[in-house]
Specification:
By secondary structure, the protein is an all-alpha fold. Helices cover 70% and strands 0% of the residues.
Length: 133
């Protein structure tokens, strides 16, 4: 992902009022694009997943760079915890996306962007802890 593309994506996300919506909208737009290239992305996913296991040759998509910028924004605004490194959080969010991408590939007839991406972003932002009052 080029720095120009990263800047373009981040500029498009500026109008979103908070970190949760920035992340959600980023992924929603990504899946909108993905839908056009489902068959090609199936092949790409297999290639990328295999190359992830070879650290010396793996080249990421650059998604983690965009996610790190969004998370950094959230940390600066007090919406995202600061006790964990930005890049660590971005990598974990990227892995959540990859899992959701796999579900989208395997279960296209039941996959719903609003529901699935919303749940994924909420899980990232709030975790699974039951916050009892």
């Amino acid at each position: 992902m080029s720095s120009e593309y990263v800047d373009l994506v981040l500029t498009a996300l500026e109008k979103q009022p908070n970190t949760r919506l920035k992340i959600f909208e980023m992924f929603r737009q990504q899946f909108e694009w993905n839908a056009q290239y489902r068959d090609l992305l199936r092949v790409y996913f297999v290639y990328q997943f295999q190359s992830m296991l070879k650290a010396e040759t793996y080249q990421g998509s650059g998604l983690d760079i965009v996610l790190a910028q969004i998370i950094r924004y959230g940390q600066e605004n007090g919406e995202v915890r600061k006790d964990m490194p930005t890049e660590y959080l971005a990598k974990h969010l990227e892995m959540m996306y990859i899992l959701e991408f796999l579900v989208w590939l395997l279960e296209p007839e039941t996959w719903d962007a609003e529901k699935n991406l919303g749940a994924m972003v909420d899980l990232f932002m709030h975790g699974v802890e039951n916050k009892r009052e």
